[in-house]
Amino acid sequence: MVGPTRFMTLYACFELGIVDALRKEGGLTAAELGAAVGAKPDAVEQLLYLPLKEGFVARDEATGGYTLAALADVAETDLQRVLTFMGMIKTGMLRQLYYLPDSVSTGSVVGLKEFYGFEGTMFEAAAVVPEVRSAWGPLAQNETASVYPWFFRSFDVPDGARVLDVRGGNGLGAIMTCRLKGSPGLRVTTFEQPALEAECLRNFEAHGVAEQCSFVGGDVLQSLPGGFDVVLLKHFVDMYDKDDVLTILKNAHQALEPGGQIVVLAPVYPEDITDPDDLQADFFPAYILGCVVGRGGLQKLSTYRGWLQECGFEVTKVTAKDPADIPADAIINRVVICATKRG
Amino acid sequence: MVGPTRFMTLYACFELGIVDALRKEGGLTAAELGAAVGAKPDAVEQLLYLPLKEGFVARDEATGGYTLAALADVAETDLQRVLTFMGMIKTGMLRQLYYLPDSVSTGSVVGLKEFYGFEGTMFEAAAVVPEVRSAWGPLAQNETASVYPWFFRSFDVPDGARVLDVRGGNGLGAIMTCRLKGSPGLRVTTFEQPALEAECLRNFEAHGVAEQCSFVGGDVLQSLPGGFDVVLLKHFVDMYDKDDVLTILKNAHQALEPGGQIVVLAPVYPEDITDPDDLQADFFPAYILGCVVGRGGLQKLSTYRGWLQECGFEVTKVTAKDPADIPADAIINRVVICATKRG
């Protein structure tokens, strides 16, 4: 019951600048902090009770001065990453979650409609609603920076292969495939909704890969172009329900040459859902159903294995990120699943 | 970070009727539950991952059927009380908390303005905004039923005393004083903003206490009428900042005859704010500042003791509720402080 209040009390201490003020100068009283951040001392004192309780800050009972406690030990880059994520939760989720039951009933993100008059997914809203874009943009950049290098280390692309990047967005996946998996004769095709073609081709041009890259417009639930050696499904199968994922996997199967490889990047639930260290069940259903697409959700690795098998693939390799590389604040636990088209 | 999502995922399972469906019939699959509550099976499965993780429900891996686990052991009255509180948090707080930093900066409840165009406190909004009233009404009734009998057992009213019920709302406190503390010659005055006079007098009439009860309109921060033996401050000092509480206590001091008694009912923070079993620091700052009045907040008992002393009172008795009478889901920890006007 105190989840929403805990979240906003802590975030408000950052957003109002109380933590920054204490970082600059320890020992400030509620009156001094109030003057520094433009709030009544009483309110500052109230907001700081929870950080005090959690040991994030400390208070000298004699002087009434506050200092950073556990928060003083958090590295700036770690803090900024967490605050970016918290900012997304505040702007992109907190109010929208009110409509979670309605989103589940209708299979659409009712929160986006209520707050922005927007019908569609969060990804689509980010393209046209500045507030949504500003909430999600920094997160998407963090994602790309931290996940893509690891993703591309997790599978091999044969020399001269033809690669299909399914739902490849504005072409970044294709560009990185050329850079990190380049070989003579390599060709990469971005498959995406036709509306993104112009932007995608501009990006290929700007990054000097227009010769190797092409664009095919279409709907992943209808069909994919054929004749490929490698098909990439990066970060989106969890946005579809089971029947749609099976359709996508079958379409990918048809797109591949015999012996071709499918590479799936997706967050997965732990096989033991009661694992207390894994917070994905705490986060993702509400996030995906209530704030992003109104359908879909994570699966367990064993579920994806079964679905791949069912669609004519043999799983050859599963790569999880080195736990040492996953910061303590990370909620998402992604894997890369490589599988080969049978027969 | 997962506080808001945990809250709404669990609440959505109740609001959509998934828990009710399982209570009626154990062993339903996601497909059967989806049909019963009007949602896609995939979404039901996603929402149930968190209750599975928490052990609230269980799932038979062979049949895919869900049953109530820990939730089966929760008594209906307990569950309804918790759901009433969760409903208030959803409607009265979740979206409004987005504006917590703004509420703190402006000292007003910005969320009420944004969502209802209402300027004022949640109490005032409840009088005119149906959605606010429906969120708060059941909670206020639970409050009255569970707290008032205990409150009135916690202090004595001398026979024939003159009692002032400060900010006495629609007169309920005065009516209960007559009923539970009645004696020949007892007189009770409800002090409240003038707008409530007519409703208050109607209630006195309807409950047959019009002879003993009267109404005085005014502002508690200006002055109180004088000549009383007992002054009641029920459940509102935590809605004021320190300077205002001191003003109210000084006004109460003037309202009392020498040796007269002040009785304060208020929730209090634990003396050790780091007590992990006390969730008030997790809840109240965001609640009071962001959702109710935009100012004020709980204090520790020692703080109220000091303030009463400073305003000319001697604390004579502090009554905490018997822990055995406090349900495990209760966030609020109230005390009754009795103090006598010095010399």
TrEMBL record, chains A, B:
Residues 7-74 form the O-methyltransferase dimerisation domain. Residues 99-313 form the O-methyltransferase C-terminal domain. It comes from the Bacteria. It holds the Pfam family Dimerisation. Gene3D superfamilies: 1.20.58.1390, Vaccinia Virus protein VP39, Winged helix-like DNA-binding domain superfamily/Winged helix DNA-binding domain. Keywords: Methyltransferase, S-adenosyl-L-methionine, Transferase. GO terms for biological process: methylation. CDD domains: AdoMet_MTases. This is O-methyltransferase domain-containing protein. It comes from Streptomyces cupreus.
